[in-house]
Amino acid sequence: MCTLVAGVVAEAVFDTVEVEFLCVKENCRGKGYGRALLRYVEE
């Protein structure tokens, strides 16, 4: 079973990533999910 805990809306523009929205489920905050998601988007 898969549970959605975070999501991001972002766009690559030249050498940068513009993040429009980043959301992490309240009970999952502080556990590194948002950080991991942003790292994934930057790659």
Automatic annotation (TrEMBL):
Pfam families: Acetyltransf_1. Transmembrane segments: none annotated. Residues 5-43 form the N-acetyltransferase domain. One of its GO terms (molecular function) is acyltransferase activity, transferring groups other than amino-acyl groups. It comes from the Bacteria. This is GNAT family N-acetyltransferase. It comes from Candidatus Eisenbergiella stercorigallinarum. The lineage of its organism: Bacteria, Bacillati, Bacillota, Clostridia, Lachnospirales.
